[in-house]
């Protein structure tokens, strides 16, 4: 059985026959219909994901942010503002609590875990909030050859799934996904292009904020990558199995595996920015049913993100020009999920409050 097929993952779409009952519950709240905007479909989605045959409160238990990190061969071409060593340095900062994602997780009440999927230099020592899930010391340079082998790609999906399962077993029923990996806006752009057929021009952005000079080099390297792959495969878009090997990063592939395991357990997936969305594209191609469990937290300032969200017909909760990654957009959206659950659970109905229209 192929890991690139939902027969392997057995993800079940949510039970849409529950929709009228859930919608009626929302419409009975003391407010004009639809007046809570995007919070309403959000509450509906949470209720559908947790549906057990009758109307009951929705719960967000031990919300957890998983930040997957890895290095990228393509980054040796100086297409980021930072050298590859910064991936390792930022992972240490996540472990030590000093990064933006630490601040936002603390303020939103999220548990944070950091996962090394293939940072060049391994992290030494053991740490409470750190998981070693290494595949290799960075991917190969995708402009010249496939980023990873078939075995590495499969292992990435499986190991990512294990990380999510462990977080769910520890009590989480909602998982946010973040990433760290210098050069990974390049991997995300190439992967999104290969999976969707969206023109590369619309997907290559400034990442960390590179110069025009660097942008031209980044674009050329990504075009070289797409040409190399489409010439060898002979078609475009290509399937998830090939796309992840050719252009995936270890963190992106593990995020896709973790998302698949999250939906398999019928738990909610909180998608971050451009890079995490490229992992979502991968997971969606493997099991389209996963879509029901995905909440798109924000639209990043990275050029391709809006285009990919449009392609997915996804409405992000926030649009704040964030372009950091790490899971920051997902963490910032967490209070909105709590608010959606709160109004769904606690708000009075017209009957109970004695309000009549
Ligand atoms: C100090 C620093 C902290 C970061 N935190 C997230 N990223 C973000 O930037 C990287 C992607 O952009 P590019 O493709 O241009 O390298 C990823 O590591 C992403 O998480 C950071 C980048 C830097 C430099
Ligand atoms: O949207 C993102 O995920 C993003 C954008 C720029 C840099 N790092 C991440």
List the helices and strands and how they pair.
Elements (H helix, E strand, L loop, with lengths): L5 H4 L9 H9 L11 H11 L14 E7 L14 H12 L3 H9 L2 E8 L11 E3 L17 H20 L4 E7 L3 H13 L15 H22 L6 H8 L2 H15 L3 E4 L2 H13 L7 E3 L6 H9 L16 H19 L3 H4 L4
Parallel strand pairs: 1-2, 1-4, 2-3, 4-5, 5-6
Helix pairs in contact: 2-3, 3-13, 5-13, 6-10, 7-8, 7-9, 7-11, 10-11, 11-12
Bound molecules: alpha-ribazole-5'-phosphate and nicotinic acid.
Give the number of DSSP strands: 6
Structural class: alpha/beta
CATH topology of the largest domain: Rossmann fold
Radius of gyration: 20 Å
Q: Which percent range fits the helix content?
A: 40-55%
Question: For the largest beta sheet, what order do the strands appear in spatially?
Answer: 3-2-1-4-5-6
Shape call:
globular
Number of helical segments with 4 or more residues: 14
User: Which CATH architecture of the largest domain is right?
Assistant: 3-Layer(aba) Sandwich
What's the average pLDDT?
98
Low-confidence spans: pLDDT under 50, at least 5 residues?
Answer: none
**Span from first to last CA?**
56 Å
Question: What percent strand?
Answer: 5-15%
Order of helices and strands: HHHEHHEEHEHHHHEHEHHH
Could you tell me which ligands this complex binds, including any ions or cofactors?
alpha-ribazole-5'-phosphate, nicotinic acid
Q: Describe the biggest sheet?
A: 6 strands, parallel
